[in-house]
Amino acid sequence: MKKTFLTLALVTVCIAVCFAAIAGIAGKWEGKLKTETGEIYPLLYNFQIDGDKLTGTAKTPKGDMPIEDGKITGDSFKFTVSIEDIHIAHTGKFYGDSVGVDIEANGSKVHSTLKRCPPTP
């Protein structure tokens, strides 16, 4: 009985720690995207978490676009941002103080590191 209770308690704590860690991704994150041609574009995401669902917005040249099909698994995530007929796939990993994200569109793939935006007064 004690072994079963201890196992259940450890599993519960592990699940709680995972959810607490990924909940830390909620908020505004910024970075830079450098294309294969050397152009640099600012990145700005506002992530919202609802269980294992990732929602929010991504700032694009066309304005703020919704994050679509967002899913969180452990400390990894994936989502899509659509600009007109272009679907931009994002996959990434949350590291606590940064987010690594791979961005893929039209056969091109780039990597960027995002940092949390400083709070606004």
Automatic annotation (TrEMBL):
Secretion signal, residue range per the UniProt entry: 1-23
Keywords from the named record: Hydrolase, Signal
MF GO annotations: hydrolase activity
Protein name: Glycoside hydrolase
